[in-house]
Amino acid sequence: MPELPEVETVRRGLAPVMEGHVIASAQVNRPDLRWPFPERMAERLAGKKVQALRRRSKYILADLSSGETLIIHLGMSGRMLISGAQLGQFHHDHPAPAKHDHVVLDMENGARVTFNDARRFGAMDLTPTEGVEDHWLIRDIGPEPLGNAFNEAYLVQRFKGRNTPVKSALLDQRLVAGLGNIYVCEVLYRAGISPSRKAGRIAAARVAGLVPIIRAVLEEAIEAGGSSLRDYRQADGELGYFQHGFRVYDREGQPCLTEGCASTIGRIVQSGRSSFFCPTCQR
DNA sequence: ATGTGTTCCTGTCCGC
DNA sequence: TGCGGACAGGAACACA
C-alpha cells in the first residue's frame, strides 16, 4: 500500500524509538517475505545500534553500527507497530503476537517494533551501508520527487517520445521515485490530465506543471501523516495508515469535487491498476 | 529499448 | 453463512 508519504510517516514514527537506540534482539518468524531473508538476519541485527533511519523512495533504510544497512519495504500490506512506548515513556507491555507478525525487534529501551505483512509482498535485506544506493533493489530508482534532481527540465526530457500512458509513466519508479496508484491518480486529477494520455504527447508546459503538483500532493500527504502520527502514538502504535482526503481515488460514481463540474468520477483499468478520473476535468 | 500482461499472497467485500 | 469473483496502496519478471 504504502506510497512515499506513508513510508515517510512510518519512518518518522519509528525514529524516536529506533534512531540512536540499540536493537536488543530480533525475532524472525519465517524464512522469507517476497524473497528469503538474509542469512542469519536475527543475529546480525542483535546488539547493533541504529545510527540513522533514512528513506529512499518507498524503502526505509536503517543504518547499523555494524556497517550494514537494513533495507525494509512494506509492499502492499506491510505495517509497522510500536508497542511498549507511549508518550515518550516506556511501559514494557506488548500486545499478543498477531497473525502475520513476521519480524519483531526488541529495542534496549523497551520499545518493540513489529513488522506485520499479510500478503508478504514486503521485503527485508541487509547490505553494507557503503554502497547501499547500488543495491539491486534501489540502484535503478529515479530521483526523489521532493529533491532538486526532480525538476521541470528532467520530467520534460523523460516524457519525450514515450508512448506509454502518463499514468504508467508516473508509476514507473525508474522515472520518479515513490509515487503509487493513489497519488498518481490525485496528481493527474489536480493537473487536469487524462490518465490515458500518452506521456510523449503532452505539451511541455503541462508536463512541467506536473512537477509542482507532484511536490504539493506528496507534501500535503506527509503533513497529514504527521498530524495522524500524534494520534497513533496515543492510540495503538500502528504507523502509516492514516485517513487522507483523496479527491478522486476510490471515488468512482461520486460527484467530481471541482467547483462547477457536474460529472461523476470514472474508473478505468490500466495495466491491471484502477485509474480514477473526471472525464470532464481531465483531458 | 519499450510496452504490456502475469504473478506472488491473503484478506475483504459484494452479489447470489 | 457459504461460495465465487473482483479487488486491494507494489513491482519483478517474462515475453511481444
What topology emerges from the helices and strands here?
Layout: H1 4-18, E1 23-28, H2 41-45, E2 50-56, E3 59-64, E4 68-73, E5 78-83, E6 85-86, E7 89-90, E8 101-107, E9 112-117, E10 123-128, H3 152-159, H4 166-171, H5 181-191, H6 204-234, E11 238-239, E12 266-270, E13 273-277
Antiparallel strand pairs: 1-8, 2-3, 3-4, 4-10, 5-9, 5-11, 6-7, 8-9, 12-13
Helix pairs in contact: 1-6, 3-6, 5-6
The protein binds a DNA duplex (16 and 16 nucleotides) through helix 5.
Provide key terms for this protein.
283 residues, alpha+beta, N-terminal domain of MutM-like DNA repair proteins, Helicase, Ruva Protein, domain 3, 2 domains, five-stranded antiparallel beta sheet, four-stranded antiparallel beta sheet, 6 helices, globular, DNA-binding
What does this structure look like?
The strands form four sheets. This protein has a five-stranded antiparallel β-sheet. The protein has a four-stranded antiparallel β-sheet with strand order 2-3-4-10, with helices on one face. The protein contains six helices and 13 strands. The protein has helices at 4-18, 41-45, 152-159, 166-171, 181-191, 204-234; strands at 23-28, 50-56, 59-64, 68-73, 78-83, 85-86, 89-90, 101-107, 112-117, 123-128, 238-239, 266-270, 273-277. The longest helix has 31 residues, at 204-234. Helix 1 packs parallel to helix 6 (204-234). With 283 residues, the chain is of the alpha+beta class. The protein is globular and about 55 Å long. The two termini are 27 Å apart. The mean pLDDT is 92. The chain folds into two domains: 4-134, Alpha-Beta Barrel (N-terminal domain of MutM-like DNA repair proteins); 152-277, Helicase, Ruva Protein, domain 3. The chain binds a DNA duplex (16 and 16 nucleotides) through residues 1-3, 6, 34, 58, 73-77, 100, 117-122, 162-164, 168, 171, 173, 180-183, 241, 249, 271-274.
